[in-house]
Amino acid sequence: MVNAIRFSAVGRAEVLRFEPIELPEPAAGEVRLRHTAIGLNFIDTYHRSGLYPLPLPSGLGLEAAGVVEALGKGVEHLSIGDRVAYCRGPVGAYSEARNIAANQLVKIPEHMSDETAAASMLKGLTAWYLLHETYPVTAHTKLLVHAAAGGVGLILTQWARLIGAYVIGTVGSEEKAKLARENGCHEVILYRTENVPEKVKVFEPHGMDVVYDAVGKDTFTMSLDCLRPKGLMVSFGNASGAVPPVSLLELSKRGSLFVTRPTLHDYVREDDTYQRAAAQYFALVAAGKLKVDVHQRFALKDAAKAHQAMESRATIGASILVP
User: Does this model's pTM top 0.90?
Assistant: First the structure.
């Protein structure tokens, strides 16, 4: 038996329960993984609330790091004692231990901590596909990042600066503005008190090439207004709620804009792409070129408190659950 977070009905954070579950021996192609750190991501709140429905009752969480404790039949590329991480799911990371398919696991580099891997693998691979696949960013790219002091935002901003891009970030407080600047934003806009499109036009009169928006409903229209003609709006999250239906004419009258709603799973669906993207991200972190700080730690049993903190926007950067 191990302890895990489970929920039987969708709703607010209070639906989460910390309870014992049975853990059988790993099946063929699986390993038993003892978690040492578990990543917290906004998508976890979407699963819990029912925005992204799961069959119930269910576990929760897509990302964690840990130590391999047992091998199922046919697993040859991993050994007992290996430190590994994952971020493709399936859900169930909010647990002390679990069985998981071996092809979901990536070995953690020697000089990277389990906490760093668990706190940032999903966010790092999200930044990877946003910058390299959804819109191939170059040194000539001008981009806007909403929630620039969030978990994805901090990595996305740093990585964009490594490439040489010009980066504007939006944040909700002076504290977060300071953090965004320290992590690479050329300019920072306080979206609660400043008119974001007007400020963007001051910094870049022709508009931005691409906007990365994980906030959703509250920022979607302003994001469109920040783009240059034929610019790309990348809506990859719903922190403020789902974006309501949008008329395609809105894209036309703003200059033949493009809009996409990508997901990580579609960009790392193939195992070789998943491993390659993770290796590229981990190498930059291990080399000190991308900095990841764990700003909040919660006990696994306090997952509901962690969700409340995320949803009230009281967190900055990356957070983890500790088994």
Answer: yes
